[in-house]
Amino acid sequence: MTKSIKTAYVIWLFGGLFGLHHFYLKRDKQGFIYMITLGGFLIAFLRDVYRLPEYVREANEDKIFMEKLRLQQDQLKTPLFMTSRFISSIAVGSLFGYLAMNCLSISGNELSYHWSEILVKFLSPIIVACVVYLIGTEGPIRCSFEWPLLGSYISLFFDSIKQSTSIFNASIFAALLLNWNLKWDNDYFERVNKRKLITRIFHLGLGFAIFSGLLGLFIWNNATLEYKGEKVTISEYFEKLYNTEEMKKAREVLKMLWDFYQAHGLRRLINHFYYGYDPEAIAHAYKILELNERSTQQDIDQRCRMLSRKWHPDKYKDMEKKINAEKIFMDVQQSCNILSEHRRNRIDQNKKSEM
């Protein structure tokens, strides 16, 4: 389907910060980068004001664009070095490498500290390589993912010599090796046109899930708030909250409810929760039926039948008396249900304690 320059500009205006215009033009890699960086930190979003016509011509496989591209491919063995992409890949790669490096809490005993540090050091270069690859291979150019990944891990070797860790170095090495090994992608347009929408959505969702996980872990282990006069991370705050007496009691109640549900089912659980945990409602029910805690189930049933007959609305012709009787009748019915369920729960609990 032919892409419209007007539509592209409208989408850019209202959704450009999230890369929607690039998704419209099937530039999914660039769209994803825009989405997680808010339009390339606004800079790339503004640059697209004059870049959009070229993107639309590429998406439409415009004759003039394709002739120009074929001429470049004939004259140049490899694509031209693009300074903007090179700088962008280093900047964004460093940012997300930093997120990956600090997404885990490296603390605890010596063994967990050791393994956490190893995991972080080997995870960060992969994230850097992914970002550099996405930025550097958009359009009819290609490079094997092995090269930026190799560049990222080469930086680990130099870091081990200097006994330091530099995500910036990993981004530079990854970007250098990627640009050194860029080639023309002659199957780019055919592959883009064959790509199904569900596949694009799946890849986008997977990428966003990984990004959200990294960002969430980074915030969880690094963002701080004040708790009882001291600054603690969010993870430490919830750990302290989990061990409070209130939370222990809440967990005990939840366990009791779960055990009751497994033994008696959802319906009895709802009734038990609604009737059995309201002492005021139980006391009011005894008062309505003129009974007490020593009353048996037989006493409750007899009293319910007697009061139901006495206050049944159909017995009254006068409208005022009928309305009053109806109110009392409803109170009687509710009280009967409350006390009957309350007694059943007590019997169940007694049986359980005897087992």
Automatic annotation (TrEMBL):
* Name this polypeptide is given: DnaJ homolog subfamily C member 22
Record-annotated membrane-spanning stretches: 6-25, 32-50, 86-106, 118-136, 201-220
Per the record, the major location class is: membrane
Q: Does the keyword Transmembrane helix apply?
A: yes
Q: Which UniProt keywords apply?
A: Membrane, Transmembrane, Transmembrane helix
The species this protein was found in: Brachionus plicatilis
Q: Where in the cell is it found?
A: Membrane
A matching Pfam family: TM2
Q: Does the keyword Transmembrane apply?
A: yes
User: Which taxonomic lineage does the organism of this UniProt entry have?
Assistant: Eukaryota, Metazoa, Spiralia, Gnathifera, Rotifera
Function of the molecule: May function as a co-chaperone.
Per the record, membrane topology reads: Multi-pass membrane protein
- Domain (J) spans 284-353
